[in-house]
């Protein structure tokens, strides 16, 4: 039996009763060590249960059948930070278990996909989630931007999952088949905003696109006692970020957000309740210290400043959505599939 157990977001305390029961009954424990991060989890779990927890890196999970083979005759638990089905690689492991006639079970838990609602944006108003990868000498991929822009023009917020590099090899070491690994890297909100700004500039000739003045919401260590929410614009979020050759330094907002893990939200049209929720956070950061900290783009944070930020953002969204409604522009935008471009009425947005 192969049981996938979600560990939650922040600490050992986030384990569900069912998850802990499965762990105590297991013969072998594996911990996903490359799609997310929870410092100290394995050590605390061993102290609680007396069981060894083997870190499972990408090579072990994706390139070997060790987990599947053991699950044929033993109870194996594969622990995933967040929810087991938040990462596609875990779906692949399930399919391989099915192909090998290994029974499996899934014990769910919270993940950033649901906890993102803590910032005040309504989950119903989110579109497809995107992943922002690190750029390197092999390229500067930006295909995720098309999906982000699609969400934006449809009035849907976008959750951006930021890249994690753990036990990864450089291009040179891969080509030379050397098992030499790079130091761990965790993308910050400032880094992600910087890359988005580069894409916006690169595509500035397009008819429709995001603006550097669009709202950006940075999330750090959501679910933990020191979680932080940063409300700003893309321009401010990425301001002062070094050139690509010097990537690694912190930006002012990244410093405020602190250490990993980070996620970034690019909102679309804000509902009045969403605006009120975000504005409430800003007021509460002073009056109710127990609530998550919120940093606005100016040193002297005032509710009027934040509301003006929201108004400007909503105006930018309206301009993009109005452009999408224009049939003349439809035919010149490569973002949409050809079957949609030839039927502009299908893109009519309420």
Describe this protein's structure.
The protein is an alpha/beta fold and 350 residues long. The chain folds into two domains: 2-110, Tetrapyrrole methylase, N-terminal domain (Cobalt-precorrin-4 Transmethylase, domain 1), CATH 3.40.1010; 113-325, 2-Layer Sandwich (Methyltransferase, Cobalt-precorrin-4 Transmethylase, Domain 2). Helix content is 38%, strand content 15%. It has helices at 17-25, 41-49, 58-63, 66-71, 88-99, 112-115, 144-153, 171-175, 189-202, 234-237, 252-257, 272-287, 303-325, 327-330, 338-341, and strands at residues 2-6, 28-32, 54-56, 76-80, 104-107, 130-132, 158-162, 164-165, 185-186, 215-220, 228-233, 262-266, 293-295. A six-stranded mixed sheet has the order 6-7-12-10-11-13, sandwiched between helices. Strand 10 (215-220) and strand 11 form a beta hairpin. Helix 12 packs antiparallel against helix 13 (303-325). The chain is globular. The N and C termini lie far apart (48 Å). It catalyses: 2-[(3S)-amino-3-carboxypropyl]-L-histidyl-[translation elongation factor 2] + 4 S-adenosyl-L-methionine = diphthine methyl ester-[translation elongation factor 2] + 4 S-adenosyl-L-homocysteine + 3 H(+). InterPro entries: 4pyrrol_Mease, 4pyrrol_Methylase_sf, 4pyrrole_Mease_sub1, 4pyrrole_Mease_sub2, Dphthn_synthase. Belongs to the diphthine synthase family.
């Amino acid at each position: 039996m192969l049981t996938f157990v979600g560990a939650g977001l922040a600490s050992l305390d986030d384990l569900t009763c069912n998850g802990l029961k499965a762990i105590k009954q297991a013969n072998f424990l594996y911990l996903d060590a490359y799609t997310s991060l929870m410092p100290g989890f394995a050590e605390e779990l061993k102290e609680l249960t007396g069981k060894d927890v083997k870190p499972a890196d990408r090579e072990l999970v994706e390139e070997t059948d060790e987990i599947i083979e053991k699950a044929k005759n033993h109870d194996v638990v594969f622990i995933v930070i967040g929810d087991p089905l938040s990462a596609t690689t875990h779906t692949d492991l399930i399919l391989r278990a099915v192909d090998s006639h290994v029974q499996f079970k899934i014990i769910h838990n919270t993940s950033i996909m649901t906890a993102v609602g803590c910032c005040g944006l309504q989950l119903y108003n989110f579109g497809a989630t995107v992943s922002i990868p690190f750029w390197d000498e092999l390229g500067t991929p930006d295909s995720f931007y098309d999906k982000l822009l699609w969400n934006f023009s449809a009035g849907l917020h976008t959750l951006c999952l930021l890249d994690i590099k753990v036990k990864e090899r450089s291009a040179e070491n891969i080509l030379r088949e050397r098992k030499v690994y790079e130091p761990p890297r965790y993308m910050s909100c400032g880094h992600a905003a910087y890359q988005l700004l580069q894409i916006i500039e690169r595509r500035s000739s397009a008819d429709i696109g995001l603006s550097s003045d669009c709202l950006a919401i940075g999330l750090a260590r959501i679910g933990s006692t020191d979680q932080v929410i940063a409300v700003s614009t893309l321009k401010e979020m990425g301001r002062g970020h070094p050139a690509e050759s010097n990537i690694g330094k912190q930006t002012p907002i990244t410093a405020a957000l602190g250490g990993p893990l980070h996620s970034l939200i690019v909102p679309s049209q804000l509902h009045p309740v969403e605006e009120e929720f975000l504005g409430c956070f800003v007021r509460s950061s002073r009056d109710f210290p127990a609530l998550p900290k919120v940093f606005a783009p100016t040193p002297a944070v005032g509710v009027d400043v934040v509301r003006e930020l929201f108004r400007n953002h909503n105006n930018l969204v309206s301009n993009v959505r109005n452009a999408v409604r224009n049939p003349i522009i439809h035919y010149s935008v490569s973002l949409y599939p050809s079957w949609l471009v030839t039927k502009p009425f299908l893109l009519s947005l309420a």
